[in-house]
Amino acid sequence: MLVRRVIAVLCALGSVATLAVGETRTEAEEEALARIYDHPGPVHIIPNDALPPGLLPTLHVRSSDPAMNRAFAQARASLPAALAATEKSNGWFSPSLALYIAVFVNAPGTPIEFVWVDSIQRDGKGYRGKLAGSARFLQDNRLRAPISFLNPQIADWAVQAEDGRYYGYFTTRARLPSLDEPLAAKLRALLVGNPVPALWK
């Protein structure tokens, strides 16, 4: 659990996304939006009475780093398998599961923040969990604060293997080449070589 929080904090520090939301935007805001999202136009907050998660459009994020773009795509592609493999009874998921979600925070210049959550349970059409690391811009940003979210907000996932290492953490893996040693080596040792278990494929 502590290891997951350490990696979560590392990911959160480098993953605060900025974008423009609203009816009118400046040219600079339009450019910022184009860098983050892979389609033009306004970004709409998902309403509480939205369609079931499976029918909602995925939150499309784009980074200036091609490796990060691949990480987002790989995480989303393998997310159904991760959720199916870790769901337990009464809507609860295994304590070994953590999800990296995009949250609307409406902070000046930063309407969206990415945070890791764990202690996950289905909640109607979406999910609820607890913050696995301290957030910067959320109103309730305490460690272990409760948070609700929908499937399209999920950008990455992580599951602890039996040997204590982790599957998933696609965004962390994408950042490893840019990290200094020995931190990169320590984090690399915590990750299973193949991010997706062979049995899930």
TrEMBL record:
Domain called DUF2314: residue spans: 65-174
Signal peptide: 1-20
Pfam family, one: DUF2314
Record's keyword terms, sorted: Signal
Highest rank taxon of the organism: Bacteria
The protein, known as: DUF2314 domain-containing protein
